[in-house]
Write a structure and sequence with these properties.
Shape: globular
Distance between the termini: 36 Å
Radius of gyration: 18 Å
Mean pLDDT: 94
Order of helices and strands: EHEHEHEHEHEHHHE
Low-confidence stretches: none
Largest sheet: 7 strands, parallel
Length: 263
């Protein structure tokens, strides 16, 4: 029987690929046969994941990129394509929350510089990576671009700049899907809910809400109908499916793997 998710011969770049959701998606792509470059600022983490990819029998490489640098993003995408011999799949996974103080994220009095930094981290950098990757995909008439959104990409709540950025990813994806379709490039948003990664800081969330870290976690669990925190590996299978020919008809979509967040 033919394998449903078959990525043999495909070449992928996963930003924020050194840990958490990015690592899980990178390994899922490798399990399906893809060669994968993982990118972030931490070379040690990247090398560990690249070795895990190679242990699965495909080509795994590490590319150091600081996604707060426009120049590094463009150069890093080109480096990944050079090391892999091309580029078929881009997963814009890098993101998070920048705040020296949780109060800087107050929606009614948001620190302006913090707003701009979080907007760049969670939205603008994905544009730069996409802009650099598209020429490779258009030339070969095949490509997959997946940006990692959030439950707050479809609902209210969350830090102001973070939510604005994730909503922006949805708009960019839908617009780009129209323009890229004639070139064989599919563009989608994959939205996790509350997920068990280091980026979820229960202490910071609790401080922002004025409650304990334990209460903050219980609040997060209460927001989806399964009453739990999603594990990173649960995102991997969907990322691999969206990257494959099995999802050839799926583009311009916002797909959630979130336990039924705010249904």
């Amino acid at each position: 029987m033919k394998q449903l998710i078959d990525l043999k011969g495909r070449r992928a770049l996963v930003t924020g690929g050194g840990r958490g959701i990015g690592r899980s998606m990178a390994l899922a792509l490798a399990d399906a046969g893809a060669d994968v470059a993982v990118a972030s600022r931490s070379l040690a983490e990247l090398e560990t994941v690249a070795k895990e990819i190679r242990d699965r029998g495909t080509h795994g490489v590490a590319v150091v990129i600081d996604v707060m640098s426009r120049e590094q993003i463009t150069a890093g995408v080109d480096e990944a394509a050079r090391k892999l011999g091309g580029l078929d799949i881009l997963i814009n996974n890098a993101g998070g929350v920048i705040a020296e103080n949780p109060l800087f994220l107050n929606p009614l009095d948001h620190d302006p510089r913090t707003f701009e930094d979080n907007l760049f981290l969670n939205f603008t950098q994905a544009f730069y990576a996409t802009h650099a990757a598209l020429p490779y995909m258009i030339k070969q008439k095949w490509g997959r671009i997946i940006s990692i959104g959030s439950g707050y990409a479809k609902n209210g709540g969350g830090p102001l700049a973070y939510s604005a950025a994730k909503h922006g990813l949805v708009g960019m994806t839908r617009s780009l899907a129209h323009a890229a379709a004639p070139h064989g490039v599919n563009v989608n948003v994959l939205c996790p809910g509350w997920t068990n990664t280091k980026l979820v800081d229960w202490n910071m969330l609790g401080a922002t809400m004025g409650v304990s870290a334990a209460d903050a976690k219980r609040f997060a669990e209460s927001q989806n109908i399964q009453k739990r925190i999603v594990e990173p590996d649960e995102l991997g299978a969907m990322a691999a499916l969206l990257s494959s020919d099995a999802a050839a008809a799926v583009t311009g979509q916002v797909i959630s793997v979130d336990g039924g967040f705010m249904v």
